Amino acid sequence: MRKKIVAGNWKMNKTPSETKAFAEQFKAILPKTKWCDIVVCVPTVDLSAAVRAFKDSRIAVGAENVYFEKSGAYTGEIAANMLLDAGCKYVILGHSERRAMGETNADVNAKVLAALDNGLIPIMCVGESLEQREAGITEEWITMQIKTGLASIGEDKIRKMIIAYEPIWAIGTGKTATPEQAEEVCEHIRAVIRKLYGAKVARAISILYGGSMNEKNAYDLLAQPDIDGGLIGGASLVPEKFVKIIEAANQPTI
Ligand code: PGA
Question: N or C: which end of the chain has fewer CB within 10 A?
Answer without folding.
Answer: C
